[in-house]
């Protein structure tokens, strides 16, 4: 099973330089999402599928765009900001559909939506078993227990010296670790930190391409040595 990180059971060599989601899973998920787009009229489901059509990091990337726009750290967006965020992320949605989505999330009619709640709802549904195994992987990486995975956390977990770019002198250890963290980051704002939310959003995308809980859990256990 190959996803997250492909690891030989007897060796940690491959661990730090594989992509966290396999290309095959991403391709399958993107094709499936595009196919399902033509079948659904539910505006929230349509937005979810448009994100998933971009691969595992699609929903997480939209969250990052919204966070950048939240200048006052209110963790809310008004309709104008919401539409701008969708446009900045190149989500082609007409104004009527955007208004309908916004109305669904603006439950109290305040004219703003909580974007954490929005992103949680936008994630493909996951069973508690899947969420728990994702959190086990996060806790293993988050050595300091502060809810954020950083280079310092990775330093205590994995050996970067087997990475080919380290071996040929192109990268330092820190650059190897940073490349690993960047896999989870949005291409728009790579900060070298991975939060619980980003980790969960990423794996919600991976999860969408895997039909059974059993397969997903085996994949995570193999990949992270849980």
Automatic annotation (TrEMBL):
Pfam families noted in UniProt: EF-hand_7
Gene3D superfamilies listed in its UniProt record: EF-hand
SMART domains assigned: EFh
GO MF annotation terms: calcium ion binding
Keywords: Calcium, Metal-binding, Repeat
Domain EF-hand: 57-92, 93-128, 129-164
Taxonomic superkingdom: Eukaryota
Signal peptide: none
PANTHER family membership: CALCYPHOSIN (PTHR34524), CALCYPHOSINE LIKE (PTHR34524:SF6)
Protein name: CAPSL protein
């Amino acid at each position: 099973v190959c996803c997250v990180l492909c690891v030989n059971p007897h060796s940690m060599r491959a661990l730090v330089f594989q992509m966290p989601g396999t290309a095959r899973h991403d391709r399958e998920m993107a094709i499936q999402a595009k196919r399902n787009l033509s079948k659904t009229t539910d505006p929230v489901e349509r937005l979810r599928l448009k994100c998933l059509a971009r691969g595992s990091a699609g929903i997480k990337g939209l969250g990052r765009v919204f966070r950048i726009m939240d200048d006052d750290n209110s963790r809310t967006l008004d309709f104008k900001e919401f539409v701008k965020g969708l446009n900045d992320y190149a989500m082609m949605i007409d104004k009527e559909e955007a208004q309908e989505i916004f109305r669904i999330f603006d439950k109290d009619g305040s004219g703003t939506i909580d974007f954490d709640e929005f992103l949680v709802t936008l994630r493909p549904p996951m069973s508690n078993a899947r969420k728990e195994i994702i959190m086990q992987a996060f806790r293993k990486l988050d050595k300091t227990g502060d809810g954020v995975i950083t280079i310092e956390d990775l330093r205590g977990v994995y050996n970067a010296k087997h990475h080919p770019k380290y071996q040929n002198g192109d990268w330092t250890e820190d650059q190897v670790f940073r490349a690993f963290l960047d896999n989870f980051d949005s291409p728009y704002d790579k900060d070298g930190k991975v939060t619980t939310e980003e980790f969960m959003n990423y794996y919600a995308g991976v999860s969408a391409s895997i039909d059974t809980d059993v397969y997903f859990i085996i994949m995570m256990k193999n990949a992270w040595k849980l």
